[in-house]
Specification:
There is one protein chain. 36% of the residues lie in helices and 15% in strands. It contains 11 helices and 12 strands. The strands form 3 sheets. The protein has an 8-stranded mixed sheet with strand order 3-4-7-8-9-10-11-12, sandwiched between helices. Helix 4 crosses helix 5. The radius of gyration is 18 Å and the shape is globular.
């Protein structure tokens, strides 16, 4: 578990003010297949130092990713741009909620330098939601992509917010030519009002469809969590909806409750059920599927991108 209070920057203040007065939710004991090692390796420390030296945030830290030890040991980190404070208040997410500060015009250059210093061959760029910005931060995403292209030979994957009510935002990001455009549905539509109240399921489907309409050659990707209370049939329907938008790559992972104030885990899905969902997803036509309890959108992203390229070439 992680704490709900941020005690690093001065006086204690709620990390999730909208959740502070909610009743505590039950916490289920994690099964053996969820266990991960503590992040104590030399590589982890080096990655941490590089991220700090460039004044960057990572979703690995902010969201409490269970794979941070494994990824940072290999100097793989998912950079989170546009600050550490999100304008949304999703019931599953540990990223700080509040009023964000202004965009940092030097961030694209620092992100590019960090990519080069880490020696990344594939970099993942994500962000908080920025509903306060006219374009939702799309131009900033594009600036980061261009800066990395100019500084490092890495392939680039973006994991964007939904740009709800931000006309033209998707086109701005696509025009910057990331190699992979990822936007996560997170859960089944029946749970959106409870779990993801600031978002709209069919808007997210439409966003992914728009990417393919603008650039049919661009790889698209989306992910969901299980264990939030969805049914198996709902998972299968989400797969069909994503394929109707021609999404190439699906990730499925177990939801892990960050604190007692967050949405409770309804169920821990065993590994064999993840394998069954993977088999079904491939049968539905996805080029790539990653499904396991610890699968996350950016986990093994570089290796998966090469497999994605190979899978497309094989079908041609």
């Amino acid at each position: 578990m992680v704490v709900v209070l941020d005690t690093v920057n001065g006086p204690q203040r709620p990390r999730h003010p909208e959740k502070a007065n909610r009743p505590d939710q039950p916490v289920m004991r994690k099964p053996d297949w969820i266990r991960v090692k503590a992040p104590v390796s030399k590589g982890f420390g080096e990655t941490h130092a590089i991220v700090r030296a460039h004044g960057l945030h990572t979703v690995c830290e902010e969201a409490g990713c269970p794979n941070i030890g494994e990824c940072w040991e290999k100097k793989h980190a998912t950079l989170m741009i546009m600050g550490e404070t999100c304008t949304r208040a999703c019931a599953f997410c540990n990223v700080k909620t509040g009023i964000p500060g202004p965009l940092d015009p030097d961030e694209p250059a620092r992100a590019a330098q960090a990519t080069a210093t880490l020696g990344l061959s594939h970099v993942v760029i994500t962000s908080v939601d920025r509903d306060d910005l006219p374009d939702g931060g799309a131009a900033h995403f594009a600036a980061v992509i261009r800066a990395i292209r100019a500084r490092a030979p890495a392939t680039i994957e973006v994991l964007t917010p939904d740009f709800l009510r931000k006309p033209g935002a998707v086109a701005t990001v696509v025009a910057a030519k990331p190699d992979v455009f990822n936007h996560n549905l997170e859960t089944a539509p029946s749970l959106y009002l409870t779990v993801r109240p600031g978002a709209r399921y069919f808007h997210s489907i439409r966003l992914l469809q728009q990417v393919k309409e603008i650039d049919p050659s661009m790889f698209t990707k989306s992910g969901i969590m299980v264990g939030l209370g969805e049914t198996r049939n709902e998972i299968l329907q989400v797969m069909d909806d994503l394929r109707s938008a021609e999404v190439d790559f699906l990730t499925i992972g177990q939801y892990l409750q960050p604190t007692r104030k967050h949405h409770p885990v309804a169920r821990f899905m065993p590994p064999d059920e993840f394998k069954a969902l993977e088999t079904i997803a491939y049968a539905k036509g996805f080029l790539m599927v990653a499904a396991s309890p610890l699968t996350r959108s950016s986990h093994h992203a570089g290796d998966d991108f090469r497999r994605l390229q190979a899978a497309r070439a094989e079908r041609r």
